[in-house]
Amino acid sequence: MVGQEEKTAVIVGAGPAGSLLALLLAKQDWKVDVFESKHWSDGSWAPGQPDGWNVMLGARAAYCLEHVGLKDDVWSEGVFCSGRTVVAGGGLKPKYQPYGYELLAIPQPKLASVLINSGMHKYPERISYHFGWGLKSLDPDESVAEFSPAGEPLGLAGRDNIVVTADLVVGADGLHSKTRAELERNIFSFKTTLKVVPAGRHIKLRVPVDVVGEQVDEKGNVHGPSMLVVARNAKLMWGVPNRDGTMGLTIQGIRGSTAADVSLEMQESFPELSDFFGADGDASARLAVSPERFQGTVTATSYNYKQTVLLGDAAHSLLNVTHLGAGLALEDCLVLDRLLQSSLENQDHSIVECIAIALSNFSNERVPEMVAAAQLCTDVSRTNMFQVELQRAILRVVTRFLPRIQHWQKAANTQVVSVQQLVKWRSREILIVRIALVFAFVLLLLRAIRLVRLALRVVLPLANFLPN
């Protein structure tokens, strides 16, 4: 059987998707080389740069992590959030908005480190990790990848480039994927689109409980940790709690390039945190040099070419408005692993042919899902908060009479449901809301007509007593 022959894979990127796929392939006796441009030390990304982006995980991510026995390990490193607390303007009281379910907040590097450490200890002979190496070039026709020291001039410290030939090449290197760029450069028919929007500067800050408490109203505290959203002076701040007592803060609208400038902006817009952002403070200095983070959408008609495939954000990055992105990236790995196993059981084809068939099937299965996910995120991003609150209020009333109807976003984060199904459920909810609004309008109109008739009954007889 083809599956009994040794199979080799190269994975570009050791983020959550790349690290999970490495575990799944190693479990099937693949020989895997994982290359990551960032450096690694003591189980943490990039020593001296702890400000990792936070992700929110729901049922889809839990299901994927359970496949490699790491769900409990990851869950123990995060914090459950049951809603978000919104502060708008200077004098308005915080408003707690419950999700109706719980999401796990965890820094993306911490999630990746759990997966990587598992690979290091469980499959030391099957998985080789190469940190500090970035993809330089890729020949997708021959499945040959060349890597060079990341951030170093060619040949520095005597380190020559690494050239690897493999049966499978996986690009899991994020929004600005070099693997995707190489496919577009080498393959005329391979086209993708990338649209990015600024998402602010990010910093991790240890904030005492009493300071956080001032940002969260009593109802929010009763429900436990929540995502914090503060909007003031055309600036936005998102805060996501971490298990180590810090908050991952993403601040949009900060323009200062020096610690003093940042300190002044923070005092004007976010005075609650001004004590932590002094003119000569470490937090101000870090935020001043923190690079602008970007959210973006990546779309493609296909995720594969021959023996090369894209996963996660490299293939289908989404706007962060539905908390689906991380779960879908991890789900990519399970789908690809399943299709590879199924294809490699075919004794009539070579390894190369089996892999190519599996990758083609992967694109056929995942592209429609990701098109639906992108459309869902776009539609949600265009919905203002008043519309969201109105829809929720109407649905709460409707579900009292039709309990089988549940909110699509709750289903998205508490069940493993097809995104295409979620789109249908959201459309159904919008239809229900519109029907409810029309029904309410009709009732009000009938009420108004009745009041007019009553008024006429009173006024018309009185008109007979008026002088001509």
Would you kindly provide a written description of the structure presented here, covering whatever features stand out?
Residues 45-50 and 153-158 have low confidence and may be disordered. By secondary structure, the chain is an alpha/beta fold. The longest helix has 45 residues, at 419-463. 44% of the residues lie in helices and 25% in strands. It folds into 2 domains: 2-373, FAD/NAD(P)-binding domain (3-Layer(bba) Sandwich); 385-446, no CATH class. The protein is globular. Strand 15 and strand 16 form a beta hairpin. It has helices at 16-27, 59-66, 71-75, 108-122, 178-186, 209-215, 218-222, 259-269, 282-289, 313-316, 325-344, 351-381, 385-401, 408-414, 419-463; strands at 7-12, 30-36, 40-41, 44-45, 54-57, 79-88, 95-107, 127-131, 133-139, 144-149, 162-165, 168-171, 192-206, 227-232, 235-241, 246-252, 292-300, 304-305, 308-310.
Please supply descriptive tags for the structure shown above.
468 residues; alpha/beta; FAD/NAD(P)-binding domain; 2 domains; eight-stranded mixed β-sheet; 25% strand; membrane; oxidoreductase; FAD binding; FAD-binding domain-containing protein; FAD-bd
